[in-house]
Amino acid sequence: MSRFLSVSDIRSILGISRLLLTNPRKLYSFMPLAGGYRDPLVFVGVMSVLGGVSSMVARLLVSGGFGLSGSVSMLPMWYVLFWPLLGVVYSFATAGMMYMVWRFLGSDKGFEVAYRCIAYTCILIPIFSLATLFPYIGLVLVIVGWVWLLAQATEVVYEKPKLKVVLLR
Predict the structure, then answer these.
(1) Prediction pTM value
(2) Is the pLDDT assigned to residue 108 strictly greater than 60?
(3) How many domains is the chain partitioned into structurally?
(4) Contacts of 100 (CB under 8 A, 6+ apart)
């Protein structure tokens, strides 16, 4: 893989998504540990837009509409425009927390590596949006998936054998 993710190539975003869902260990083993924030940010943005669209669809399915009441609703704009902003804020905040956890576990890798690991867990954003259609069980499944992806990143990228913190493996 000469270029892990190219912002101009949607096929690589789809390839990364497929690999994350089928073989995250392989993805994390090929993930470059440096190269800037642009490519992971693009991935977070794309997943956030998909999450906003899928959340909008889920709301339409559950409530039958947006409650327009005679005027143009801002709700669809919220889902499509503000979800990417929230996704970026979430990814940096979570990367900061996980950076501290990984430092506590003895890692000497920088914040960029932590951000890349967290950015690729954002594959779960659209899945989480649709999981809200299934109260309780959907949220539990997404949390388990997120912890599992973090365990994979910790084992492969941070070379920590069999996390004792996470008993999923």
Answers:
(1) 0.81
(2) yes
(3) 1
(4) none
Nearest Cα neighbor of 123 from 104, 99, 100, 142 is 142
Q: Is residue 5 part of a domain?
A: no
User: Rounded to an integer, what distance in angstroms lies between the CA atom of residue 101 and that of residue 40?
Assistant: 20
Look up residue 7 and give its two tokens. Answer: 């912002």
CA pair distance 153, 98, nearest whole angstrom: 11
Give the residue from 43, 27, 62 showing the smallest Cα distance to 138.
62
Residue matched to tokens 């425009």: 81
Structural domain boundaries enclosing 107: 10-15+24-66+73-156
Task: Kindly state whether residue 3 falls inside one of the protein's structural domains.
Answer: no
Tell me if residue 49 falls in helix, strand or coil. helix
| Spatial distance between the Cα atoms of 151 and 45, rounded to a whole number of angstroms | 23
Phi, psi at 33, each rounded to 5°: -90, -5
Question: What counts of helices (H) and strands (E) characterise the chain?
Answer: 8, 0
Residue 67 has pLDDT above 60, yes or no: no
Residue 1 lies in a domain: no
* φ, ψ for residue 108, nearest 5 deg: -110, 10
Query: Kindly report the CA angle at 15 between 135 and 58, in degrees rounded to 5?
Result: 25
Burial of 21 per CB tally in 10 Å (0-12, 13-18, 19+): middle
